[in-house]
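BUG: 3D viewer hangs when loading the predicted structure for this chain

Environment: internal workstation, default settings.
Expected: structure renders.
Actual: progress bar stalls at 90%.

Input used:
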Amino acid sequence: MSDYQAKWERVDEDSPDRCQYIMSQGQCRNKKVEHSEYCPAHGGHKAYQAKEQKELRNYRLNQFKQRVGELTNSDGIFSLRQEIGVLRLLIEHKINQCTSTTDLLLVAGPLSDLAMKVERVTTSCGRLDIKLGRLLDTGKILQFAQTIIQIVSDEIDALEILEKISTRILGAIDAQIITHEAIGDKKLHNYRLNQFQQRVDELTNSDGILSLREEIGVLRMLIEHRINQCTSTTDLLLVAGPLSDLLMKVERVVTSCSRLDMKLGRLLDKGKVLQFAQTMVQIVSEEIEDNEVLEKISTRILGAIDGQITV
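Structure tokens produced before the viewer hung:
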């Protein structure tokens, strides 16, 4: 209880601190409470308590304001990759806690819901990556590689060295351009996840971050276990509703997966493209001994990167 509640002080009739409450006998002679026009007997404590509550709310807001600001201004504000990682962590832990088919069926509902949430977030993530220009068409990457080869051929006359460089660059393209996967290798820590951070990072930065194939596998495993537990037609009819729901979820995730594969199969993360460019520069530097020519080629390659890859 606050100190002001115990203060019942009389004041002079003309005191500016006099309670403003009017009784049948006249104005109250008690001293008003701080931040109020009334004494404790006439509700002055409520204004004081309201002020205390407001200050407490402001404190709580300020307490989390810095963290909210960090999340709001994060480099990954428009990336959903870590949300995918967190959802997949939940799926992983739910499955790992199951020691029998019964355990698995008990979590079938929440597990399938998580799989659908992964599907939705992954689809949105893929769309955002395309719209925000995080991914480049592999056709443009091939054009970029041809530009690099042209730069090198402009600067050197030795056909044997040029052919060797071209072969190595084409080999680097084959190694870097992976169809049906868009790879994100930049760690954007939106969340502070303590002991789970490492595993979320692994899931977030997985080569298959935008693939839904494992979610399809999880859903089909649930269908398989539901059917295998049935020993009669009656049993099968009893699980017909949940089973049909799972089948429809598989249909949706398979459809989304195929769409993502088609959309992202020809796209590559820009971080990988930059690594690819560095690989090409390394290839050239290993084949050319003339430092002046090498510097000239490197400068032109960097210019080509600036012209084609906007990070």
